[in-house]
Amino acid sequence: MYLDILFKVIGGLGLFLFGMDNMSKGMQKMAGQKLKKILAALTTNRFIAIVMGIFVTALVQSSSVSTVMTIGFVNASLLTLKQALGVILGANIGTTVTGWILALNMGKYGLPIVGIGAIAHMFVKSDKAKTRALTFMGLGLIFFGLELMSTGLKPVRSMPEFVQLFHAFTAHSYVGVLKAACVGALLTAVVQSSSATLGITITLALQGLIDYPTAVALVLGENVGTTITALLASLGANANAKRAAYAHTIINIVGVLWATSIFKYYLHFLENIVDPVHSMPAAIATAHTMFNIINVVLFIPLIGYLADFLCKVVKDDDPIGKERVTHLDVRMTETPSVVVEQSKVEILTMGTNLKEMFFKLDNAYQNPDNLDENLERIESLEDTLDLFQKEISDVNFRILNGNLDEANAEETRENLQACDEYETISDYILRVTKTMKKLRDNDIELNEYKITTLSKLHSHVESLFDDINKAYELRDRDLFVSSIKKCNFIKEEYKKARREHLEHVANNIMPAMLSTGYMDILNNYRRIKDHLYNMIEIFAKI
Q1: Burial of 434 (0-12, 13-18, 19+ CB in 10 A)
Q2: Which residue intervals define the domain PhoU in the entry (predicted)?
Q3: 171-203 pLDDT, tens per residue?
Q4: Which H, E and C letters describe 40-69, residue by residue?
Q5: In terms of C-beta density within 10 A (0-12 exposed, 13-18 middle, 19 or more buried), how is residue 431 classed?
């Protein structure tokens, strides 16, 4: 008997959690394009941030995902603390959608939904259709898991020891309410899914093992327990990210304190909306939703004060600490589509830095006296691009090794290749500049013809880079293809300059360092052209 109960409850909980995970990931993939617009939307006022928090959490069906993503945005300096607080408040409302899904009480339809989803997944071909099928199957697993737990717990009603255990934390007094809230918080912190504990709460209430007030008290505590995910995500993050995580906990704890202090009145208010006698699941979902809506309304005018308080309590980061150069963070990998979009922004920033490197090198040709100053700046930019490559690669390889759909996986691979090509180009620009300095330090001067030849070649390569960078930004295949003509022209110019130099070497005596140095510069420009041509092959698929 006991084993039968245990197996059904554990099996049901496992299927429920697996279903939630499948549905959440599926919703994220289907909402990918919408999630890409978040970065622009979240830079406005707190009310927009709250709306976006509701929207994103409702889409991905996980407040943990949206709050961890928010922590990542703050850590990457894409969001201010006040904006993050708005998103977190919105996430608290958005997560209540799950309660209404559970309140549908469709347990008996769970298994057929799983079957339909699994069969569809076997026969459909496109990634988008497979994602929809998995999401649908995840929904079925949620209902089927709840049904298993409910069936497993039915015999418990007639077992005095279990009935006594559940009565130990009934919400019939203020202390009892706090006990029930603590149990809900602890259970959610362990499971790390408020949706799972909400499902368990609804199941226990349906089986008559707990009454409505106890269920509401458990739900209050679950709102506190779910903040453990954000707290864990903030470990190792910067001061502002920690403040955002602490704010999430403070907001929910304060909410539970006011709700428990007026618990009887709160219950009366809820019972006027939905009668638990006629619809227990809907009444519990209502309690979850109303608590979070009221709490958000109370905190909206306090966002600024809360942010100021946390800034005083949590010390700023050590200024000596090494700052990141990109706005990417490993915590953002919960939403791969956002990582893909932000990676493109960061690579375009790399392009801007490369543009400056080209300008500084050109200035070195035109004004040899400024060579040292230009070299110093080029070295600094090259070091920065090395950091860009590392940070972009770290985050993108994480999502590439995860469960990415084919479209995002392809774009991630393209971004990684573009990032590598840009970083390599920066290496060659630095080598050209260092070669020029080496020649000058050894009192070897390039004649006017060679300077003019290199300056023209530089101009053609820079023009090619501008076209490739613009084509990458616009994902313009035609512009990539049309750039092949410039590649071929540069190739011919390189061959011409190389042939002329070799003929000159054969007919004249010149220092070996001059000959090899000039050829090194020519070859480095050819290699830059080759890496830009790699970009054409990658994006034009030729």
Answers
A1: middle
A2: 454-538
A3: 888 999 999 999 989 888 887 778 888 888 888
A4: HHCCCCHHHHHHHHHHHHHHHCCHHHHHHH
A5: middle
CB atoms within 10 A of CB 43: 13
Torsion over CA of 28, 93, 305 and 40, rounded to 10 degrees? 30
Distance CA 506, CA 99 (A): 84
> Is-contact 66 56, C-beta < 8 A?
yes
- Cβ atoms of residues 39 and 335 within 8 Å: no
* Residue that the structure tokens 């993939």 belong to: 29
Rounded CA separation 392/403 (Å): 18
Distance between CA atoms of residues 228 and 211, nearest Å: 27
DSSP label at residue 324:
P
Domains, the chain: 2-313 (no CATH), 335-540 (1.20.58.220)
Give Cα separations from 429 to 326, 374, 461, 517 (angstroms).
22, 11, 11, 14
Q: Are 428 and 524 in contact (CB under 8 A)?
A: yes
Residues in Cβ contact with 242 at an 8 Å cutoff, skipping those fewer than 6 apart: 234, 314
Distance CA 437, CA 92 (A): 60
pLDDT, tens digit, for every residue of 448-492? Answer: 889 999 999 999 999 999 999 999 999 999 999 999 999 999 999
pLDDT at 320 over 50: no
Mean of pLDDT over the chain? 86
Sorted by sequence, the CB contacts under 8 Å of residue 432 that are 6+ apart come out as 361, 521, 524, 525
**CA-CA distance, 222 to 242, in Å (whole number)?**
21
Instruction: Answer whether 142's CB lies under 8 Å from 16's CB.
Output: yes
* Closest by CA position to 41, among listed 56, 29, 27, 30: 56
Binned at pLDDT 50, 70 and 90, residue 318 comes out as low
| Residue 504 CB contacts under 8 Å (≥ 6 apart), including other chains | 510
3-state secondary structure 475-502: CCHHHHHHHHHHHHHHHHHHHHHHHHHH
Strands (E), 295-345: none
Tokens in use for 294?
A: 């009221």
